[in-house]
Design brief:
This protein is α/β, with parallel strands linked by helices. The chain is built from eight helices and seven strands, in the order βαβαβαβαβαβαααβ. The longest helix is centred in the middle third of the chain and has 29 residues, at 104-132. The relative contact order is 0.14. Bound molecules: nicotinamide-adenine-dinucleotide. Nicotinamide-adenine-dinucleotide is lined by residues 11, 13-17, 35-36, 63-65, 90-93, 113-114, 140, 142, 185, 187-188, 190-193.
């Protein structure tokens, strides 16, 4: 089992990352929580996990746009919890606009947070995982790592990039007991997509729920959003022994979006 292993999940203060932290903590993993909240809020969240699951925790609000911050927070996490056995690169942001008007700062932030941060975290954990001959690296990509959509130039570039990163690291680490995979979800019910729903609601004068339904069904045949926990359960499966042979894969979880 996974009891006693240490899992670091970036962006685990919200949405998919938080749900994944719960799923892994239920298995007895020690958890490195990370994301943009105050140190006080993060310490409180970590304390809740410790009490609820009888595990060790560490919290950091390191800004993933800064490679030095990433290295610093991962060193601190290893010092506190002993190792990082499971790495889930999950943190991400979105901005939607056509390419001609896409703000350069948004491009730079999305590439840094949704793509480059995973390079930095992976580079940091791989040597220790190789020494142990065991590791699990799971990158939360997106259906937009496999196909494009209008107005998502930076997001699609970053997500396609993380699929490529996943493939290369999986090949390099295949003899070291480390599997590296990307999960490619369709719509997941989290705060990340709230703005896209609000935009449709105001453009078309619809209720929030009507706009949400329109957003989901525009491209995804399954007419509902996934629950964040469903992604967490898939992460758990990929950490288990049955998934030992799954590596280098970009795994759609997209309600038939990319089947079309
Ligand atoms: P969310 O907004 O609920 O959570 C994002 C997390 O990333 C938060 O914890 C936030 O604090 C953290 N984060 C953002 N910017 C950061 C920064 N600069 N430094 C450190 N942490 C930062 O979003 P979510 O929907 O749970 O998204 C999680 C991942 O899943 C993202 O990579 C997203 O692209 C991907 N994804 C989401 C959906 C969806 O429909 N929600 C679909 C496919 C893929």
């Amino acid at each position: 089992g996974l009891k006693g292993k240490v899992a670091l999940i970036t962006g685990s203060t919200s949405g998919i990352g938080l749900a994944t932290a719960h799923v892994l903590a239920e298995q007895g993993c020690h958890i490195v929580l990370h994301g943009l909240m105050t140190q006080d809020e993060g310490t409180a969240l970590a304390a809740e996990f410790t009490t609820q699951y009888q595990i060790n925790t560490y919290f950091s609000n390191a800004d993933l746009r800064d490679p030095a911050c990433i290295h610093e927070f991962m060193d601190a996490a290893v010092e506190q919890l002993g190792s990082i056995d499971i790495l889930v690169n999950n943190a991400g942001i979105q901005h939607t606009q056509d390419v001609a008007n896409f703000p350069i700062e948004k491009w730079n932030d999305i590439i840094a947070i949704n793509l480059s941060s995973a390079f930095h975290t992976i580079q940091k954990v791989v040597p220790a995982m190789a020494n142990k001959q065991w590791g699990r690296i799971i990158n939360i990509a997106s259906v937009h790592g496999l196909v494009g959509s209008a107005n998502k130039v930076a997001y699609c570039a970053a997500k396609h990039g993380i699929v490529g990163l996943t493939k290369v690291v999986s090949i390099e680490c295949a003899e070291q007991g480390i599997t590296v995979n990307a999960i490619c979800p369709g719509w997941v019910d989290t705060p990340l997509i709230g703005k896209q729903i609000d935009n449709i609601a105001s453009d078309k004068n619809l209720s929030y729920n009507e706009a949400k339904y329109q957003l989901v069904t525009a491209k995804q045949p399954l007419p509902e959003m996934l629950a964040p926990r469903q992604i967490g359960e898939f992460v758990l499966f990929l950490c288990g022994g049955a998934a030992k042979g799954i590596t280098g894969a970009a795994l759609p979880m997209d309600g038939a979006w990319t089947a079309q």
